[in-house]
From TrEMBL:
One of its GO terms (molecular function) is CoA-ligase activity. Its cofactor is Mg(2+). Keywords: Ligase. Residues 58-407 form the AMP-dependent synthetase/ligase domain. Residues 459-534 form the AMP-binding enzyme C-terminal domain. This is 4-coumarate--CoA ligase. Belongs to the ATP-dependent AMP-binding enzyme family. Pfam families: AMP-binding (PF00501), AMP-binding_C (PF13193). PANTHER family: 4-COUMARATE--COA LIGASE-LIKE 9, LONG-CHAIN-FATTY-ACID--COA LIGASE.
Amino acid sequence: MAATNTNSSSQMDPNSGFCSHTKIFRSLRPSISLPPSSQPLSATQFALSLLHSTTTTNFSETPFLINAGNGHRVTYSDFLHQTKSLAFSLQKQYSLSKGDVAFILSHNSLQIPSLYFSLLSLGVVIAPANPDDSISELTHQIQLTRPIIVFATSHTSDKLPPNFRTILIDSPEFSSLLTQFSNTDSIGSDVVVNQSDIAAIIYSSGTTGRNKGVLLSHGNFISRITAYRAIDPFETGIQQRVSLIRRPLFDSYCIVNMMKSATMGGTLVLAETSDFESVLETAHNYNLNYCPVPPSFILAMVKSELTNHDVRSMRFLLTCGAPLGKQVLANFKEKFPNIEVLDAYGLTEGGPVASMRFPDEINQLGSVGRLVEVVEAKIVDPSTGELLSPGQRGELWVRGPTTTKGYIGDEKATAEAIDSEGWLKTGDLCFFDSDGFLFIVDRLKDMIKYDGFQVPPAELEHLLMSNNAIADAAVVPYPDEEAGQIPMAFVVRKPGSTITDAQIMDYIAKQVEPIKKIQRVAFVDSIPKSAAGKILRRELVNRAIFNP
C-alpha cells in the first residue's frame, strides 16, 4: 500500500476508513504483515513455509486433495513429494528455466496443484486456460503468451495448435515425473525467484471483450494468500477446513484458494461438475463446510425444497461475481440459520478477494464487506474525475500489492486500466457507506442509458429473481429510437411455470420508477454466464439485436 502521512492519518474517519485529506478509503481490518518486497521469494516457497510453520498437528496423512467423482485422494505427504520430484524432473529432463511460459489446459485433476507449485518454484510462468474455451479463444491465448511447453490431457489436447511440445497430465510419462525422484531435499533450490517476477498469466473472463492476459507476480500471489488467510473463517484452526473447488484451476480465485488451503492444512474437494444437485451431493458425501458458489446457487437454495440433500455439514458459503440482493440474503438466513453467507468482491486484476463481509456483519446485508488490509480504494466520478465521499456513487478504483502489473502484449489496455500511481480502474459502479462497507451497484459498461438516465440491470435482476415463477434472469439494454435504450429481460421460467411477458413487465412496473420499467421480455432455456458466474451480457445483447 502507499505510505500514509501523519496528516492524512489524522483525518481518517475511524468508522468509514475515509480520509478527508486524500479522499482515499483504507481498510478497517486488523493489520497483517508481508515479507519485504525486496526479499527473493517464490509463491511456492512462501506457501509451503506457512504450511510447515502454522500447522501444529501432524498433517502428512491429512488429505489435501479429493476427487469428488471417484474418491481418490492425495495426502499432504504425497503432494509434497510429487511437487519436489516434478520440479526436479522438469528442470533436469525438460530444461525448463526461469521466465519460460507453460500453457496448461486441463479439467480438474489431482496432479494440477503439484504442477503449479513445481513450475512456480522454478520461476516458470504458468498460463492456465479454461478447458471449455473454443479453439479460436485458446489459439488467441497461446499467441499472447508464446509458451515453450504445454501441459494438457488426452481430452483437451485436440484443441491445441500442432507442433507444440506437449506433456499429457494423464499419461504414464507424467506419472513417472511425479515419483521418480525421491531424494530431492528442496524445490528449485538453485533458482532465485524475486517477488517482482511474473508468476502467472491469467486470462480475463472476457465479459466485455476478447480475453486479455493478466500478469500476476509472485508478490501478487504472496499478498493475496496473506490477505485471504486473514479473512478466512477457519484461520483459527478450530475445525478442519473442507472446501469445494467447483471448476478447473484456471482463474486467480481458484488458484489462490488452492494455495491458501495448502498453507492451512485444509482439504480441497475437486468437483467434476458444478451444477446445483452435484454440489449438494458432494457436500453430503465429503462433509464440505466451506463452499465458494455463484450467486445463482444461493438463489437456487432459497427456492429449492432440498428434500433429497443433507446440508448439515455446511457452515460457510462464499459468493462473489455479481451483487446479491438484500432480500435474497435475508430469505436464505431465515431458511438456513446455521449456514453463513460470506459476500465478497474481487477481480483478477486487483485481487480475487478485495473485500469481504464477515458472518458477524449480518446487519450489512447487500454489502460485499469492508476492504481487506492490503487494499485501499477511491470512488471516482466517471464523468468529472472528482473523488467522492461515503454515500456517493462512482467508479471504484483500487490499489495495493495484489494489483496486476498489466496485460501481456497490450500496453494500451494496461494504460487505460492502471494510472501512473498504480490505481486500477475496476469499471464497477460502487459506493462506501458511513461504516466503510462497500456496495456494488453494477458494471459501468452494463448500465442502461434510458433517456439520459442510468438504469442498473442488477437492480431489476434482483426483483425478477424474487418472483417464484422465475428460475433465472438477466437484463440488458435494447436499442430504442426515442429513449436510446430500454431495459429488456431474458427470463428462464421455473419448471411448470406459465408466467407471461405481460405479467413480468407488470410485476416489475409495480416496484420501480417509470424509467426502470422492463419493456421487452424474451424467454430462454438458460442465461449464458462466464466460468466465474458473471452474466455474458454481450451474448444476450447480440441475440436481442440480431435475433429479435
